[in-house]
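During the reporting period the student researcher (J.K.) took over the structure-prediction task from the postdoctoral fellow and processed the backlog of single-chain submissions. One of the processed entries is reproduced below for the supervisory committee.
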Amino acid sequence: MSDTAAQTPTQLLVQSNISGTMKVESRDGDAVGSVHAFMVHKGTGRVTHAVLSLGGFLGMGKSFYPLPFALLNSTRSATSTS
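J.K. obtained the following structure tokens:
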């Protein structure tokens, strides 16, 4: 095996957990779930996907869905302190 093949990463994305800190709402303002994690590209350092956590009760039955980061809109909530 060549040296360059040994140095090439096998996975291009790394997960950054932020579970439960960012709520997700629909365009109509209905609560949908929360952002569980961001997927970050190792080469560029940019977020490529947000992993949404939907459903479940007391940590049971949750579903996780990757969503391209470009599809999300961020707004400051009325309860935001910063």
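The committee noted the following: The longest helix spans residues 3-7.
J.K. will present the remaining backlog at the next meeting.
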